[in-house]
Amino acid sequence: SLPLVTLIYVLANVAYLAVLTPAEIVASNAIAVTFGDRVLGFLSWTMPLMVAMSALGGLSVHIMTSSRMCFVGARYGHFPVMLAQINVSKLTPTPSLVFLNLLSLVMLCTSDIYALITYSSFVESFFIMMSVSGILWLRHKRPNIPRPIKSR
Q1: Interatomic CA distance for residues 73 and 79, integer angstroms
Q2: Whole-model pTM?
Q3: How would you label 54-82 residue by residue, b for 16+ Cβ within 10 Å and e otherwise?
Q4: Domain locations in the chain?
Q5: pLDDT tens, position by position, for the chain (152 residues)?
Q6: Which residues does 36 contact at the CB level (< 8 Å), separation at least 6?
Q7: What are phi and psi of 89, to 5 degrees?
Q8: How many Å apart are CA 47 and CA 142, to the nearest integer?
């Protein structure tokens, strides 16, 4: 599925570049909406709807994976033990969800949405970089430790 998603994103960018001028791309607040206005005509109202649905899908995946990452990290002793608890009837990591919701409420205290996007993107990129660096460091310094997940 990863090559398919990559292909779709590349084709979308090629379509944007084929239809819009560089000046329109620079001036646009939302390139997909400008593209939709140009290509879809009277159906251009569907483009913001599709962008919102895509963002909602990404948000739901982020919520599900982030709470489970906190849960597993707590199980391995990297986070506080209280985050390792789980709701027995629903099998959801409720303390992790509450913790992430509290972090989200703290982030909402900013009045500048662009600063929030910049800071959250920076933090997420930092943690991804640290995770990849940790994997590479372990591969180099401890090549013989057992690894539960292997790629070929």
Answers
A1: 6
A2: 0.58
A3: eeeeeeeeeeeebbebbbeebeeeebeee
A4: 1-44, 61-109, 111-152
A5: 789 989 999 999 999 999 999 999 999 988 988 999 999 988 888 988 988 998 899 888 888 888 888 899 899 998 899 999 999 998 889 999 999 899 888 888 878 888 888 888 888 888 889 888 988 998 899 988 888 877 66
A6: 43, 44, 46, 47, 48
A7: -80, -35
A8: 49
